[in-house]
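User: Run a structure prediction on this.
Assistant: Running it now.
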Amino acid sequence: MDKTSAVIKNEMAAFEEYFKEAVKSRVPLLDRIMRYIVNRKGKQLRPKFVLLTAKLGGEINTSTLRAASLVELLHTATLVHDDVVDDSSERRGFFSINALWKNKVAVLVGDYLLSKGLLLSLQNGDFEVLKILSEAVKMMSEGELLQIEKARNLNIDEAVYYEIIKGKTASLLASACGAGASTTFIDKTKIEQLKLFGEKTGMAFQIKDDLFDYGTESIGKPTGNDIKEKKLTLPLIYTLNNCDKALKRKLIYIVKNENTDKNKIKFVIDAVNDKGGIEYANKKMFCFRDEALSILKQFPETDVRTALEQLVRYTTDRNY
């Protein structure tokens, strides 16, 4: 992502300072946890999308920095809450908040991050940005709950899978692009275009994440975590719809009843690879990526557009 980093190097530095100030608290425990979060930042893809989509329409301003901070606050809040729900002890190679400070503190920290984000927008009159991001929070919750509901009886088809990932992942990336664009673009049609661009990128991003669970030589070591959690993702959905009845029954039985047995999980992973589930999911991932790039090509060719294209390709080419 060399081009991306170069194009928004100064703006990312300004965002990081702004974000650091935004999460400060006068409660010593909370301030300590906020410093822990800030010092263990991830890839920061979403703030980068905010800044780049904004720069596509003009010069980045303080409203853009607030939008990027709001997106990162909401994203971090969902990660903290997800670790509690999933009883996860690690996040990005470090101890999760709940592992260090227990679930009660982690839930309250997530709530704090969410409220700080909302107040950041309200206090500065960024109502359009707030509207865009509030819709994303609603869709993310709906997507997660839909996945939980469907996991109970494993009746997810491909259309439902797309509905789930559109809510739980793509909605936030769509809103990041829409929020960034709204701080520099006047034409609402352009803002909607960039929201759709973010949604398509987010769909590709989530399919890539789901592929990591099965692993190939190019993807990395398979984990089987989705199988353990009874999550039907695109590689397995395709396999179930394109194998004989006996294998389908066996795969469903393993996911329902034997999802902690390493040998059984390996059987499912091998079946998904053998029946073309990985190949099919890759094909769909690249379709969403190419749809995102085609939307982007409607904008003038500049260094900013090139940086965005590189960022989109990173979402599907990354190794982790």
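The CA atoms of residues 25 and 31 lie 5 Å apart.
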